[in-house]
């Protein structure tokens, strides 16, 4: 399937909170080790990145619908309107799930995976899966955590927006899941809403936790910040 030629890997509507008055942000591409300013219109663009080679799921249309519903909910949180409606809560969780899942594959644009396709007539054909196929199939894997299954909307009393003294970065790995120990259930979900606001759902993080370093390590390809604040590199991230 041929989809959108200029597809964003990190949602443009979400990134606007990091843009200056001219709509410019700072970007690090970890695959090329390049750091550069970019308009939000052109940031994290990869041509036809969500196209499928085998399956027929229109991921770009699906993602666009999730973004259209989720960004207004994020904007309400940015205004510190934490008493979201049930619909807004579900839209926000769907957006976080989308961001989380796309981030798992952010460094695999252009990768092709050999596969065998069993057709309805019983014949088997060789094929190569594209990123769109991987994203669609990956959601069905048993070990993939989906926030909708954690019933985050029932954690309503534990949703906090923490002001940040130092500018927050974001990236394809910005949705982060935390557990008190290996093998324990997820107890905290964090997500930067803007350079000055961190959404924390669940248990509190330790004081002075270096969230920018965690985001830099967790992001597979794209890191984004307000201009002049993104002092992060692949090997030695800084706050």
Mean pLDDT rating: 90
The radius of gyration is: 18 Å
Distance between the termini: 41 Å
Shape: globular
Topology order in helix (H) and strand (E) letters: EHEEEHHEEHEEEEEHE
Profile the largest sheet.
4 strands, antiparallel
> What is the topology, as strand order, of the major beta sheet?
3-2-12-8
Count all strands and give the number: 12
Number of discrete helical segments: 5
Share of helical residues = 10-25%
Poorly predicted runs are: 233-239
Structural class: alpha+beta
- Beta-strand percentage range: 15-25%
What key phrases describe this protein's structure?
239 residues, disordered C terminus, four-stranded antiparallel beta sheet, alpha+beta, 5 helices, 12 strands, single chain, 24% strand
